[in-house]
Amino acid sequence: MTKLGILDHGYIRLVDVMGSDLTVVNAARVSYAKESSELSERDIRLIKFLAREGHTSPFRHAIAQFEIYAPLMVARQWWKYVIGSAHAEGSGDSLDAWNESSRRYITEEPVFYVPRDDEWRSVPESSKQGSAEPIAKSIGAEYSSELHQLIALGETLYDKAIADGICAEQARLFLPAYGMYVRWYWTASLQSVCHFLAQRLEHDAQKEIQEYAKAILKLIEPHFPVAVGELLSD
């Protein structure tokens, strides 16, 4: 399993992985010129110790690369973790790379995320951000329809601009942005991946990015079952 579908058109694909739980162990043991050839109970105890005591550098020797297709609102929230990974408290992690497709160069058919009638959510009473319970399906249906109409108008104007010779980097201004799907590669250390997961698997995270976080966890955990479990433990 290397690819999981998310939302209506989105997906995450695990492109490549470098390392395993043993990579973390040996990165730590090199301090004493030691190396393990296979994971033992002693090694597992070492991983638990490293995670518990915040000795995070060994977790940065394991790397994962993903291809992600998500609405722009998810991508921009995700990007905060790439920017912040080198400055997050106790992380010291700069092993992140992000390369995104650009509508300055491509004119492929745009794809948009439109919530289903029963997926629109209400404003929470106790916070100025986030969302609460679903709103009435009848109201959701109205706004799903309105959003489809807005997207159709934007696509019509975008196609017209392209046909009239307007450059792609300006024609894209007609496309409704936040729900439009974008595609990118994210390469990150295991520590950085788990930092993202720890934040976006929380119950108060935006639901759409929670779904992507769940997929990341499902794809990465089989490769680092001990390390992921310990880095995400309370």
Shape: elongated
Count the helices. How many? 8
Structural domains: how many: 2
Lateral arrangement of strands in the main beta sheet: 1-2-3-5-4
Q: Could you say which structural class the secondary elements and strand pairing correspond to?
A: alpha+beta
User: Termini distance?
Assistant: 28 Å
Pfam families: Thy1 (PF02511)
Protein name: FAD-dependent thymidylate synthase
InterPro entries: Thymidylate_synthase_ThyX, Thymidylate_synthase_ThyX_sf
Organism: Shouchella rhizosphaerae
Identify the notable features of this structure and list them briefly:
single chain; alpha+beta; 2 domains; five-stranded antiparallel β-sheet; 8 helices; EC 2.1.1.148; methyltransferase; Thymidylate_synthase_ThyX_sf; FAD-dependent thymidylate synthase
Walk me through this protein's architecture.
The chain is α+β, with helices and mostly antiparallel strands. It has two domains: 3-105 and 181-231, Gyrase A, domain 2 (2-Layer Sandwich); 114-178. The protein has helices at 21-29, 41-53, 72-84, 137-163, 168-171, 190-200, 207-220, 225-231, and strands spanning 3-6, 10-18, 63-71, 96-100, 181-189. The chain has a five-stranded antiparallel β-sheet. Strand 1 and strand 2 (10-18) form a beta hairpin. The longest helix has 27 residues, at 137-163. The two termini are 28 Å apart. Residues 87-93 have low confidence and may be disordered.
Q: What is the compact description of this entry?
A:
The protein is an alpha+beta fold and 234 residues long.
Layout of strands and helices, then pairs:
Blueprint (H helix, E strand, L loop, with lengths): L2 E4 L3 E9 L2 H9 L11 H13 L9 E9 H13 L11 E5 L36 H27 L4 H4 L9 E9 H11 L6 H14 L4 H7 L3
Antiparallel strand pairs: 1-2, 2-3, 3-5, 4-5
Helix pairs in contact: 1-2, 2-8, 6-7
